[in-house]
Structure formats: C-alpha cells, structure tokens
Write a structure and sequence with these properties.
By secondary structure, this protein is of the alpha/beta class. It has helices at about 15-30, 50-75, 105-110, 125-140, 145-155, 180-185, 210-220, 240-245, 260-270, 285-295, 305-310, 320-335, 335-350, 355-370; strands at about 1-5, 35-40, 80, 100-105, 140-145, 165, 200-205, 230-235, 255-260, 275, 300, 315. The protein folds into 2 domains: about 1-170 and about 355-370, Rossmann fold, CATH 3.40.50; about 180-350, Rossmann fold (3-Layer(aba) Sandwich). The longest helix has 23 residues, at about 50-75.
Length: about 375
C-alpha cells in the first residue's frame, strides 16, 4: 500500500507530533508498505525581518506554499494520513484520495468555543480552530487517540460513527527498565540532583493545563514529612514558578532539567520514586505509559483520558487535591511494598501499547477506506 503521511511544520517545534509522524513512518515501512512523508517547507519564516513577523510568514509557508506541493503528492497514493488534527485543513488538498486525520485532542477547539480547557483563543485562534473543524468534517475518517477525544470529535465535529474510531497511541520511544548503574551514569552530570536521595519526577511544560504550580505545592507539603527532591523536566521555569518554589521554601530540593533527551528521560523514569502528573486537561498522556514502561509508579489526576490509559494501574486523584497527592507521595516514600505493587501494575498495563498493534489498527482503517472508495 502507498501511504502519504502529512507531518508538521518543523518551524513550530511540535516535538510530540513530529515523533508521532516518525513512529507512523517507521511502523508502516516495517510492515512492508511504501511511505512518503511531506510537510510544509520552512522557507519564508526564515527570512523574517523581525521576530513578530515569523508567525505570519510561517502561515504563508503552511497555507499558501505547501498546498500545491501537497496536491501533487496526494496523487497516486492509496491513502493520505494527516498526522496531526491541527493540520486537518489540508484534507481539502487531498481530494480524490482517501484521507485520514489523527485527532490528538480537541482542547484548543473547545477553548475557541468558550469551553474551559485552559486553552483560551485569540480572534485569529478562533478562526484557525473553525478551519480545523471544517477540515475534520471533510476527512474520510478521523482516528482519535482516546475515547474521550473521540467523544469530543463526535459532539463538536458531528461526524457519523462510521467515520470515527479510536486507536490508542503506542510508546513513541522504546522506554524500558535499565540497570541502575546505567541510569546513574546517564545522569552523572545532572547537578545539583543528588542521586543518592529519592526524587519525585514531573515531565511537562509551563502550560496552565499541565498544573506545574500544583506539582510544586503538593511536593512542598509532602516534604514536611519526608526528605525528597523534585525533578521538573521540560522547558525552563517561568519567573512565577521560580517565585512559588522560593515561597514554598523548597528551592534547595528542586532540580530543573531542560528538555532532557530520551536516554536521560529513560534514566529519570528508572530512578524516580514516582512520576507525578496532575494535568488538568489532556488528549492522551504519553508520559504516563513512558513512566510505567520504566517501572516507575504513576500518581496522576482524574483527567478524563487517563481512565482509559492507566485505569486502576495508577494512583489517581482530582487535579485540585493537593493534600491527597501529598499523602500519596509520603505513603509511597515510606512503603516499598506498596510501591512495588504499583510498579507491577504499570508494567502489565504498558503491554497494551505496542507499536505493531497501533500500526495494525491504522492499517485496518486504511483498508476500509480503500474498500469504500
């Protein structure tokens, strides 16, 4: 089968979506299919005279320059697959070829409609989200990465059930348990983290919905009873977060690791006491299964998709229950037997997220569209 994968504009820096496209490409080729990947070229935005103009020149790259290339690439393939729903408008230029869109979440769309998702939209943002919805309606099939996201697609986009399906994401990197000595070696330069003392790990950005302030406050409360460290992996902290850490009196306990690579992150998951992920809104929650694959217990919020991703294999509370989260942290720090139980549950759960199974589900969608064509 000839498959065209439509990836993201590299200038936008959407690493998770780039990983998803790469995972689809590798998986489909390994399954014996012919794969071509196209994405908008980074051309005009490179010539931006001032930083503020880069965004608008990128729009020209994405929506004026790229469509002609896409229309040509879509000819002669069996299926065109838009790997990120934020590019759903490209379905317009795939006419005549069965078109699949993967929807990772509807948070920005919902925010543009005035729903609370911690994703408010500007005027231009509302216009863009309407265009995305139109593209989803034009697609021949929309695959959501969780049932919660699929329900949002059905409610907002109005697609029939026949055009909607759910395929859970697979691990986008082969995270696994590694020897402690190897993990320590990979993190040997991660000053000021003291690898001889237990630490709680959070992986995420500074977006409001990621709830980094909640992580800091719950951790600070737990530290009143146990001696722990906190590792915040992701982008540099905002000044507001740094001030919160100082106010909570935990500056000497917090290590920020700016955008660690896969090997460093795998080592962190392997060594952490637990992975703490109290997000308010998500479409799937990749870090949950990444942690579990490394034998790291998960403490997370009752965010809707998480019920499907981790279910009863993680400790779960309302995102606002910082007192409860702190109690869970203290309990796992003092009870190695309970911690081991959550490790075992996580390792069993992550078996559901194999890449071959995910690719097989997408191939089923492709074949059904070809049958209908």
């Amino acid at each position: 089968m000839k498959v065209l994968l439509i990836g993201n504009y590299r200038g936008d820096g959407q690493e998770s979506m780039q990983r998803f496209a790469a995972m689809m490409e590798e998986g489909l080729e390994r399954a014996g299919h012919e794969v071509t990947v196209v994405r908008p070229p980074v051309m005009l935005s490179r010539l931006a005279p001032v930083p503020g103009s880069r965004k608008w020149l990128a729009y020209v790259d994405k929506y004026a320059v790229f469509p002609r290339q896409l229309r040509s690439a879509a000819r002669g393939v069996d299926v065109a697959h838009i790997c990120d729903h934020s590019n759903a408008m490209y379905a317009r230029w795939c006419e005549g070829t069965p078109c699949v869109v993967t929807c990772h979440d509807m948070l920005a769309v919902r925010g543009a409609l005035g729903e609370q998702t911690d994703c408010p939209a500007s005027y231009s943002g509302r216009w863009l989200q309407r265009w995305i919805v139109q593209g989803l309606r034009r697609a021949d099939a929309v695959v959501s990465v969780s049932s919660a996201t699929a329900r949002d697609v059905g409610r907002i986009v109005g697609l029939s059930e026949g055009k909607r399906s759910v395929v859970l994401n697979a691990l986008n990197y082969p995270y696994q348990r590694i020897p402690r000595e190897e993990a320590l070696r990979r993190l040997s330069s991660a000053a000021p983290l003291d690898l001889s003392r237990p630490f709680v790990l959070h992986v995420g950005s500074n977006l409001v919905r990621k709830n980094r302030p909640g992580v800091i406050r719950a951790f600070a409360r737990a530290c009143r009873e146990v001696d722990l460290q906190l590792v915040l992996a992701g982008p540099p902290l905002t000044e507001a977060l740094r001030e919160l850490i100082r106010t909570e009196g935990i500056a000497d306990r917090v290590t920020v690791m700016v955008k660690p690579g896969n090997e460093e992150l795998e080592a962190l998951f392997n060594l952490a006491l637990l992975f703490f992920f109290p997000s308010r809104y998500e479409g799937f929650g990749w870090p949950l299964i990444e942690a579990q694959a490394c034998g790291c217990p998960v403490l997370c919020s009752r965010c809707e998709p998480f019920a499907e991703v981790v279910g009863d294999t993680a400790l779960v509370r309302a995102a606002e229950d910082e007192v409860g989260f702190a109690c869970d942290i203290v309990r796992l720090a003092g009870d190695s037997g309970e911690r081991c139980q959550w490790v075992d549950r996580g390792l069993q759960n992550v078996l559901r997220f194999g890449r071959d199974e995910m690719i097989g589900r997408y191939l089923d969608v492709y074949r059904e569209l070809r049958r209908q064509a």
